[in-house]
Amino acid sequence: MRRAQLDIQLKTPEQIELMRGAGLVVAAALDAMRAAIEPGIATADLDAIAEKVIRDAGAIPSFKGYQGFPASICSSVNDQVVHGIPSAQQVLREGDLISLDCGAILDGWHGDSAITVGVGETDPALLKMAQVAEDAMWAGIAAAARGSANGRGHLTDISFNVEKAVRKAGRYGIVDGYGGHGIGTEMHQDPHVLNYGKPGKGPRLQPGLCLAIEPMITLGSPRTAELSDGWTVVTRDGSLAAHVEHTMCLLDDGVWVTTAHDGGRARLGDLVTSKQP
After folding, report:
1. How far apart are alpha carbons 17 and 245 in whole angstroms?
2. What is the pLDDT of residues 119-161, one digit of tens each?
3. Which residues contact 15 (CB under 8 A, 6 or more apart)?
4. Would you tell me how many other CB atoms lie within 10 Å of the CB of residue 35?
5. Short-list 252, 276, 268, 170, CA closest to 213
6. Which contacts (CB < 8 Å, 24+ apart) does range 3-7 have?
7. Nearest-10 Cα torsion for 101, 107, 108, 112
8. Does the chain have fewer CB atoms within 10 Å around its N or its C terminus?
């Protein structure tokens, strides 16, 4: 069977500047939600906080109404991996682990990012899992920057380095099938970016490529199921999960993490483009 050709859109530096604006709106919304997290707050309250930050910045929540999704964020608690729907009835408790995924559109361009946060006093094993997911995300982003710079990188180098970082850190499940994606004037574009796989395959990494890199890992099995709401993805074995995400763009002289306040400099150092402010 012949594989469908990917429609990968490369962005200009000027377009990436516009994506940076959307990315900073998303970063501010995540900061506001992180600051509000405490036992007793409902996920619907977090959704309201994020929507206010996004709209006050003159942006539009990209999740709200997307294929019928009813909220501005995805709030996934404990064994919920991704795409959890915020609710007034879902009240956070001490020790919960929550993934907050947020997107915004500004001047027609998208930003997309996610964090995983403990609620109150949280089991150190859960916080470690969240840190492992974050470290793996940065390992994937760094691989993209190096591969673009030397002209020899391929898409699955990102997947391979995410997986390698997770495997090195411990016995975690890397969620089957789900992963990152291209991003730009649409929230989801080609290519799909798995969080596991062999290196050296797929499209070449090159300037203008913008991707959302998003590891999803569990304390148990990598297998998941979708609930009857048609959105919420949970682990099949009930194990807890972590999910993190940043939007990154490759330029001629490095990478720009558009949803990180510092553009990624603290984690990536000289791999970050010199063109950013």
Report:
1. 19
2. 999 999 999 999 999 999 999 999 999 999 999 999 999 999 9
3. 109, 184
4. 9
5. 268
6. 6/190, 6/191, 6/203, 7/189, 7/190
7. -20
8. N
